[in-house]
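Appendix B: complex inputs.
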Amino acid sequence: MNYYDLLPRPLSELLEEHPYIVDFLSSFGLEVEAGPTTLQGYLENLDLDLLEDLGVGAEQLQQSLHDFINGMLALDDPLDKVNSLTLIGGFDKSGTAENLELTLKPGEIICIVGPTGSGKSRLLADIEWVAQGDTPTGRKILINGEVPDSKWRFSTEHKLVAQLSQNMNFVMDLSAEEFVRMHAESRLVTEPEKKVEMILKQANELAGETFLPDTPVTSLSGGQSRALMIADMACLSKSPIVLIDEIENAGIDRKKALDLLMREEKIVLMATHDPILALMGDKRLVIKNGGIARIIEASDAERKNLIALEELDNQLLALRNRIRSGETLENI
Amino acid sequence: MRFLTVSGPPSSGKTSVILRVIEALQARQRKIGVVKFDCLLTEDDQLYAKKGVLVKKGLSGALCPDHYFVSNIEACVSWGHENDCEYLISESAGLCNRCSPHINEITAVCVIDNLSGINTPRKIGPMLKSADIVVITKGDIVSQAEREVFASRVKQVNPGAIIMNINGITGQGAFELTSLFEDASDIETLKGKTLRFSMPSALCSYCLGETRIGEEYQTGNIRKMDI
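Resulting structure:
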């Protein structure tokens, strides 16, 4: 089914089946009513003076509607499943070859470590751009073992990568529930209400302090914001790869957050220097001078130390809660 | 010479994005010219000059800025050509949201930022809706969900465009945008070309300097609200 199949159909049926058409037209300032008129008839009878005032030509409007409807219909196509992502090494800043081929699978967590300016962002950008030797590092990215379709580069519906940045400000004046619903609607999920409920529940399980559905997103704490975004990313984003720029310690259960992303079969790449997060990863990529200098696989000794580190972390968390509730720390 | 028109609301990050693209183009040894259009004042030309690119500054002053743009851009293109530029980029702000500097067959870029509000894509006319490439900036200061919602709103009003997120500070994405600039239209002159969309018109007493308010002072092309 495509745009041309929809043209001869009456608006009474179309607007019911494809409500986004109303939204599309209203974003150009046009009104539309369900009735016996066909979509084609509606478009042909638009007042040209009105279009001139709205700043759009009849031809351009039809072209945009064509592209929009075809894009929306494509959202229903089953998404190509990403079973593996392969990184073929390029060169560091001095031109030394990285000499590596690394294959990542859904459910894996890869940590990226290295000082500021070492090239962590470039690595993440190479993956997002699905580099084919055409970036400064000369790296290549394969998906399912093959050179991927270029749609991964430009499509907003089929974005390969969702990114959780360190800064987490909200600018929208909405409640948490409205915000998630708006996001769900923009992704055209079926049964958005269920998704919204699920995401808010998950977010509250991750956040140290719970929040209500009607809490404005702008008043969420840092931890609550991150919890909401991780839950949202896990449950709503179709992107198979998640890039995380450090999950800060405060106010969020980091282990649960990573577990959630792993359950949703995401490939997680995380820039972090937090010992607990780093040891939770399957591998660590050490970035130096713009290149991947070393790949460390978490050893058994490290895994054992993770348990000790988690105990330490829980002790600190308990102290944090005592401070929050107004206690003193004379005896710890 | 490859020529592109870059436009966008004030403070959306046009200059930063162009500067990051210039750095990437210079890494490829390209000779670049920039024409900066503004209304009253701009110091951005110095930022460009510092990068070692050729700059021309045009201030529209008391004239409508987009009308000023269209009556000067042909000469600017000739200027770029005479100076052997391989790239010429024009930067202009769309101040009334109904204007657009975009020209048929010339690669058109619109820069818009995540902080401008979820309804902004709807409010901007042909400058956004007829662009070939839409660059969304300031993504690093909002959440992933907001980036996705904002991009989907842009997609709604310009579904045919390539939509890219660029960080004007770190330059993330600028390298990739530059690859698209390499595909821009290669031209010698703007003679015979047309604007993608007509500019809003006015031809009334106020265009000619009238300041007094009142029915008797209004002549020419006047439109009344339905009150």
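Residues 3-75 of chain A form one domain.
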